[in-house]
Amino acid sequence: MPVAKREDIECHDGATENDPRVYVINGQNYRSVTSVLRYDAEGSYYLEEWFKKNGLDSDRQRDESGLVGSVFHKAAEDMVTGGRVVNDSLIYDLKLGLSDLAVKYDARTLSHSTTLFKRVQRCLQGLTNFWLEYKPDTIAAERVVYADKIGRQETRVSGSLDLECVIDGVPTVIDFKTSKSIHQSYLVQSSVYSYMLWGEDQHGEYQGDDWYKGRQVGVLHLGNSTKQLYSWKVVPDKHRNRKDVPGFLNRFGMLSDLHALDFPKVKPKEETLYPTEWSL
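Below the sequence we write its predicted structure tokens.
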């Protein structure tokens, strides 16, 4: 993977709604992996069905789920790097997030912080159970990875992988998900992250078709209805229907081409700068 110092990486809101996040790395703009995956037909189908089912309440539920995910990810980063998380800080973050949502929605329609807190607790307990079962050794958490091409295909993309670790001696990339179900686009996403981490050397040169050998990548679905409150799905390196790492990388390449056709240039949203002192 090409190396960039943390101080050389910036994350911004995108200039359009189709680029909610733009990474600026060493002065260059990179479209986010999640923006590209909005073009995934399979994920779009389930999203459309969900909107049909929930109607006008869909946006609120989506934003509340996003808040749960954000609070969980913040706590998970602390936990996997040896830190402690207290319930009071989780509740504080949830209340703060709900106060922001109250500007957008009628506060009376928002879920109570206690309800969202229970969802976060289930996810954290699922992560704890997974940790006790698999005993990962953390290498890095919330690591920004990027690439100027995926395999031999030119595409400038970046994203933040949740966990790089070692399980039973195997280098592993894990993407945390707190949604109600796992869609194929999540497997595509984690496959792309693994390529950006392992598929190129520090100079950005392709490592060859065997770059994935001896490594694994998967999605950890947390807070679900299973007894252990998690499901661990490893992406196969070979599958007869191409639902494997190489197949998912090819799929992402096609989606990236479509995104680039519609949005040839991505750039950060221009923020209005105000003075630091005021007087008349």
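The beta strands are 9-12, 22-25, 28-32, 137-150, 153-167, 170-177, 216-222, 230-234.
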